[in-house]
C-alpha cells in the first residue's frame, strides 16, 4: 500500500465511557425509566471499529454510541441486516417501485392531501364516477360502488397493519359494505343526512385482535385489547379520508359502524324514499383539467454529511406532520447533533490506482446524506453510513405531501441496490443494515419484510435467520437466538481463557490490555498499575470491567479509552 493510501486510512478511535443510561421508552411509552442502555461518546471513530461495534449490537446517534442492555431493557432491540444479493422483493415492495415510476411518468398525480396507495386513488375515482352517474343495479344485486367501497376499506386495513396500528399476523376477513334500508337508517346514524351504505368490519377486527392476544404470539396485547369497534372504525375512516374527498359521499363513524352518507342534506320526505342516488356536485373540476400529464426526473445525489438549510427545512416539516413533534422541540442544534454530526473518520479511495482500493467503493467510507430530488425539488433525505461490510441506514425524512409514494420503502430498495452495484468494486461490501428490530413493537416489525433478513444474537453475536428467531421472540421479547447449549459451552470456554491473568482480571474479565489515553500518552492498563495506588485502582477497575464487557476484548485493546 502506498504511503498516501495508508495515511488516508489512518487514525484511531478515541472513546469516553458514559456508562449505563436509563430513560423513558419511545416504543412502549412506559411512564418509568424502563429503557436501559450503555453509552459511549466519541468524536473520532474508524469505520472498521464502528463496523465491529455494529456487529456487537451498537448504533450511533450523532457522536453518541449506545447499546441496549438486552436482558434488562423494556423493549429489546436486535440488530437486523440482510445480504443484498440474496434480497427478494415482495409484491408490495415491487408495487412501491411501480408507483413511483407512474408518478415520474405523469400517470399518477398526487395532491397534498392524497396520502394513500395509488390503487386507492383509482378505486376512489371509480366511486366518484358511479355516484355521479346516478346508475344503480336492482335492489337485490350488489351495486358496483359497494364493491369499490369494500376495496377501499380493505386497503385501509392493510395500511393499518403495515404502519403497526394492527399486528401483522392478525387474520381479518374481507370487508362487506351493505346498503342501508330506510327502516334502519335512524338506528345506525344521527342527523339529517341521507345514509346510503354501512360496514361493520370493525367488529370482526376487534374479535381477531382478542384472539391474537390470547394466543400470546408476541403482539402488543395491552394495546390491542384497548381497541374497541369505535376506535378501529375511526382509524379506518381516517385512512380512507386520506384518499381525498368524495363529491357525493361523506364518511362517518357511529356505534362502531363505518357509514357512508349522501353529502347533501335531504328533507324527511326524500329520506323516506331513499332509493335514488344523488348526482355528483357540479363544483368539482373534470379529471382532464385537474390532472397534468408530465414527465418528471428523479435524481439521487450522495453527499458527505453536512448541514444543508434545504434539508433542515424538509426535516422540520417531516417531524411536525409525520411525528407530530412540538415546534419548540426542533432546532438546528438538535438536528445537527442527531443527523449531521459524525465521529466517523472518512476513508477515500486513492488516486494512484492502489490495489487495496478494490476494498473501497468510489465514494469512500464514512457518513453521508443521500438526497432524492424530483425536477430539482428535494423530496427525501436518507442518512446513511457506508462501512467496510455494509451500508447502514440511520434515518430517513421525506416530504409529507408525498406520503403515498412510500418513500421510506423506496429508499430502502435503492440502498439495497446501491450495495449490489458497489460490491463489484468493494468485495467486502455485502450487507444492508436496517438498524434495530423490535419484535414487541408492531411499528418496528416492517423491517422483517426485507427478506431474507438476519438478527444478531445478543449473547454470542452470531447472525440468526429471522425465520429461526421469530418463534423464540413470539414467546418472549428477550431471547438468546443462537443455540443455548452451544452458547453456554462457548461462554464457559471464553471465561476460562479470561481467568488466566489474575492480577488484572476480575470476575473472569481480563482488563490488562485495555488501551488507555492519559495526558495524551497511550498505555495499557497493566502498565498503568505501576503508577497508581490501590484506591485509584479500586475506582478504575469496575469502570474498565464494564467497558470491556460491552465492547469486547478486541475493541477494548484497539480503541483508545480516554481517561479523564
Please, could you describe this protein's structure?
Residues 267-290 are annotated as: Disordered. This protein has 564 residues and is of the alpha+beta class. The protein folds into three domains: 3-93 and 294-482, no CATH class; 110-290, no CATH class; 489-562, no CATH class. The protein is 35% helix and 22% strand. The strands form four sheets. The chain has an eight-stranded mixed sheet, with helices on both faces. The protein has a seven-stranded mixed sheet with strand order 3-4-2-1-21-19-20. Helix 3 crosses helix 14, helix 5 (144-162) packs across helix 9 (229-241) and helix 7 (202-214) packs across helix 9. The longest helix has 25 residues, at 534-558. The protein is globular, with a radius of gyration of 29 Å.
Task: Give the secondary structure arrangement, pairings included.
Blueprint: H1 3-8, E1 14-23, E2 35-44, H2 47-54, E3 59-61, E4 64-68, E5 78-83, H3 91-104, H4 118-133, H5 144-162, E6 178-179, H6 185-188, E7 193-199, H7 202-214, H8 221-225, H9 229-241, E8 249-254, E9 257-265, H10 268-273, H11 287-290, E10 298-304, H12 309-321, H13 332-340, E11 366-374, E12 377-386, E13 390-398, H14 407-422, E14 431-437, E15 453-456, E16 463-465, H15 466-475, H16 484-498, E17 505-506, E18 509-510, E19 515-518, E20 521-524, H17 525-528, H18 534-558, E21 560-562
Parallel strand pairs: 1-21, 13-14, 19-21
Antiparallel strand pairs: 1-2, 2-4, 3-4, 5-14, 5-15, 6-7, 7-9, 8-9, 10-11, 11-12, 12-13, 15-16, 17-18, 19-20
Helix pairs in contact: 3-14, 4-5, 5-9, 7-9
